[in-house]
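Contributing: when you submit paired examples, paste them exactly as shown. First protein:
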Amino acid sequence: MEYKEKKKEQGIEDALEYAKHIINAVHIPLIILDESLKVVLISQSFCQVFKVRPEDTEGRFIYELGNRQWDIPKLRELLEDILPKTTSFDNFEVTHDFPDIGKRIMLVNARRIYLETNRTKLILLAIEDITEPKNILDALYEKIKQLEQSLKMEEGKGHTIVELKRKVEELQRRIIRK
């Protein structure tokens, strides 16, 4: 019986090492939580974007990370209310002002994962920082408003603004789908 347990344990360690290589190959910040919402693994891109170190995060409750900077009401809603009722969610927008990196607008995707081998429940979070594209879009919308106001008096030019606005909205949809 001891041999089987050791073999099973080794299989889990191998799987974790394998997963670590995969998530480090992805450019979107990833974080894997256990069912009690403690950090099991974070990607290198997560470390770079949010300026954290694996040794300061792994094994800690997600809401305690970085002097509790991840204790975000919208994130709590996702992890405690929405995710338990479904197996996944996509493109949930969360805005938060982090002490070290400033205000960030993020799209959060989550998947619940069940590992049959050792009956482990995990949560995979992909967190895409869309702050820059969102700020660009906001600036474009502001410019459009200014153009609409300045061209209001000129007949026949309104269609140009409407077309520009349509293109910006299409760009926004493409960024969010990305």
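Second protein:
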Amino acid sequence: MLSAPAKGGTFSVLTSSFSPDRLGARGALTFAVRYGDGEPDVVSPMGGTSVPLAVRRLVVRFPAGMGLDIPNLNACTARRLRAHGARGCSAASQVGGGYALTKVHAGTQILSERIRLRAFVGPLHNGQSTLEILAQGYTPLGETLVFEGEMRFGRAPYGEELVLRVPPIHTLPEAPDASPVLLSLTLGVSTHRLVRSANTVIVPSHCPAGGFPFASESTYADGSVGSAAATVLCP
């Protein structure tokens, strides 16, 4: 696990896993990016008294040979999600879910909020798959946002990459925007829920020496950029 901090001192830590962990399998991928200030080996989403820089763009790079298998393109648009929430889109368009944690300075306090994430297949863009991620907070802020993402071809040793645009997370009047301190997202479904028409992740059929490489690159509100890398051991 490697991490390079942004100029502002914010570190990110990336973790990844496949389910099932079997070459060529259809299933799910979970990745998580944690943010914090200080040394990368002690980044804790809930600990500490500081708030990291807000993230504006996140790129997650996947190993070569991994891909999304979407049998039926039941696309859902960001506009429908903003207007109607998850009920505005077909269940067949959902491709995953997860959660995020955010922090914000509110006077002398630091407020934390857990946010539910639901990922949907978006319309094709330049022949590439897109994702629309509905983010629903509850307490204390109750903010609802849509993150737009796009799958692109990456460069070796990686295959495709997911580019997520993270909008400002507004909070209380006269308070700064909230900062994500953890983003965990699962794409696809695990084996015990697998049906023929399910949207899944395809595990690469070949594992390079040393394991499957993953990487992330985060662009923060001040324009600085930080990176992290992780390796999933071969099955």
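If you have annotations for the second protein, write them as plain sentences, like these:
Residues 40-47 have pLDDT under 50 and may be disordered.
The CA atoms of residues 137 and 181 lie 14 Å apart.
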